[in-house]
């Protein structure tokens, strides 16, 4: 295989990896190329792929440990390391919560004992228009903060819960009971973290799961969280991915926030396979 190439898709985020066939076993040279590309480009897109759940889980295992999703009803029956991201229920009907799900800015599972390294999403069916996923570059967002805010954040520790803040309460309001196989307790994370490969500082605060800061009242913390969310999701930091069937997209769970755009016709089917990968 010839050397893969990178092609930019967005101004700050979104990079296509051209010349990689993930339906075949990925050799060590290609894996090294993907790792190097991913360190600098935390939203990496592979077009025209065709992976089943077993192949998707196997690809995820090249980067760490895929974890069984806590939402029992969204797990793939035969491959529990893989979950469905879909608006179609098991009877083939539109699942209204599947349309609404994950449409607020967030990072996945910062309330786990160990937060995930990356996630991989593979499009199987997509709406005829829109239905995209949006990503915010939390490296660029940090860089653009003024010195006073950077100094303030350097001493702050964010408090993360599953949906304890105002956004989480709103998003899950009226949600049919979701079957979880575990309970989560609040986790404390630095408000600014460093990328493990590049060392770049990253703003690690998201409005869905970050509901406060250690030693700060909620009345003081929430306006700061909203201010940081508004700053981080300016157009200049955001990439909107327009899905095509066969797209496989991997994103860095520290360096980005994401959300479903929720902008498609709800009667149209949107079915994707996902695996979330944790560090070894």
SSE order and pairing:
Layout (H helix, E strand, L loop, with lengths): L4 E4 L6 E4 L9 H13 L2 E4 L6 H9 L3 E2 L16 E4 L9 H5 L17 E8 L7 E5 H6 L3 H8 L2 E4 L5 H6 L15 E4 L1 E3 L6 E3 L6 E4 L4 H15 L5 E4 L6 E5 L3 E5 L10 E8 L2
Parallel strand pairs: 2-3
Antiparallel strand pairs: 1-2, 3-14, 4-16, 5-16, 6-14, 6-16, 7-13, 7-15, 8-9, 8-12, 10-11
Question: Which structural traits does this protein have?
Answer:
280 residues, alpha+beta, Double-stranded beta-helix, eight-stranded mixed beta sheet, three-stranded antiparallel beta sheet, 7 helices, 16 strands, globular
Task: Tell me what you see in this structure.
With 280 residues, the chain is an alpha+beta fold. The chain has one domain: 4-Layer Sandwich (Double-stranded beta-helix), CATH 3.60.130. Helices cover 22% and strands 25% of the residues. It has helices spanning 28-40, 53-61, 96-100, 138-143, 147-154, 166-171, 218-232, and strands at 5-8, 15-18, 43-46, 65-66, 83-86, 118-125, 133-137, 157-160, 187-190, 192-194, 201-203, 210-213, 238-241, 248-252, 256-260, 271-278. Strands 1, 2, 3, 4, 5, 6, 14 and 16 form an eight-stranded mixed β-sheet that branches. It starts with a strand and ends with a strand.
Largest sheet: 8 strands, mixed
Helix content: 10-25%
Number of domains: 1
Count of helical stretches: 7
* Helix and strand element order: EEHEHEEHEEHHEHEEEEHEEEE
* CATH class wording: Alpha Beta
Report low-confidence residues grouped into runs of 5 or more: none
The CATH fourth-level homologous superfamily? Clavaminate synthase-like
Mean of all residue-level pLDDT scores: 90
Query: Rg to the nearest angstrom?
Result: 18 Å
Strand content: 25-35%
Supply the CATH architecture.
4-Layer Sandwich
